[in-house]
Amino acid sequence: xxxxxxxxxxxxxxxxxxxxxxxxxxxxxxxxxxxxxxxxxxxxxxxxxxxxxxxxxxxxxxxxxxxxxxxxxxxxxxxxxxxxxxxxxxxxxxxxxxxxxxxxxxxxxxxxxxxxxxxxxxxxxxxxxxxxxxxxxxxxxxxxxxxxxxxxxxxxxxxxxxxxxxxxxxxxxxxx
Length: 176
Hints:
The protein is α/β, with parallel strands linked by helices.
């Protein structure tokens, strides 16, 4: 028990590749403060954050900017992003998700229905970073293997302790 508590309390860090356009942003500073190894790149899509060891990519967009710009512009940016990244998330940030913001998200969902894009509505930077890190952590190989092991152990425990399973075994033994 103490070992699992210690594992849970250790700080998870990884390599994060961030678009150079976000170099002086609150997102980059917060990730650096969390001891992640942050690398900046000119070659990734503007506004994107890649957790390379987890294989996930996030495109940060402000809803306000999307509403004020031409739809073709940000749609093209999203298309390019999901074409390059197999496991992609669109992080739409707005202080308040009102009717206009939900309509925008609905239009984006309709446009990319059936693609590998998932949309995450967030309210602030802290919310965005927490979601991105949680997704990246759970999809990293080490944690994915740990979660898989825990699920197998839980399944075995349920089977061993289940009165239904015991009854089924008794029925099977009595028919043999």
